[in-house]
Amino acid sequence: MPTVSLDSRSIAVPKILCIGRNYAEHAKEMKAEIPSAPVFFLKPSTALVADGGVVRIPSISNDMHHEVELTVLVGTGGSHIPESEARKHIAGFGVGLDMTLRDVQAEAKKKGLPWALAKGFDTSAPVSSFVAADRVPKVASLSLELLVNGQVRQRGSLADLIFPVEQLIAYLSRFVTLEAGDIIYTGTPEGVARVIPGETMEAKLLGGTSTLTRVTVSVQ
Ligand code: MG
Predict the structure, then answer these.
(1) Which of the chain's ends, N or C, has fewer CB atoms near its CB within 10 Å?
(2) Considering the entire predicted model, what is its pTM?
(3) Residue 24 C-alpha to ligand 1 middle, in angstroms?
């Protein structure tokens, strides 16, 4: 099973749960409505790429986009987790890229088909190492940054999440049992755009001005 690291431990990842349209400004740029409940989809854990890895654009796409997101590592699994208990189920926080084949996704949306191919292809989930949750005081005080070839492309504050992390855990666990090692991608701020072969993406999770963790990957 693919793994991620938390401090220096290696953790097996059963599945990746993803949330779409969790920032109002991103919903707007996608010309999508602001959702009344979280928009949920899955990626296989085989999509993971660690720091220093490579993202490969499948030949069916000419428009692969970056989406920088806060990632949450589940520590203790469970189902029907109350929002008030959610924080206890979090092992750590990280930063990830929800790589998206925008042209394939647009076609699927048009036909009313699932997003799985547009979102779940091999290498579609770069992720940083995780910072232990007890070293991250308040999620709303964190921010995200994505640089492509050293230029800032996306910036977002976790205070702007439409559905905060605790609410996502409560919602998702009503329908899908969370397991230790699961990763939740929590949605991207505005500024999504295309990347092309040869470019380098660097995603950061910031606490104030200090980088808590980061992941750097190249595009092929
Ligand atoms: Mg996303």
Answers:
(1) N
(2) 0.97
(3) 13
Surrounding residues of ion ligand 1, Cβ less than 5 A: 67, 98, 188
- Ligand 1 center to residue 20 CA distance, Å? 5
pLDDT tens figures, 149-194? 999 999 999 999 999 999 999 999 999 999 999 999 999 999 999 9
Q: Which CATH class is domain 3-219?
A: alpha beta
Distance 65 CA to ligand 1 centre (A): 10
Structure tokens at 217: 């990957």
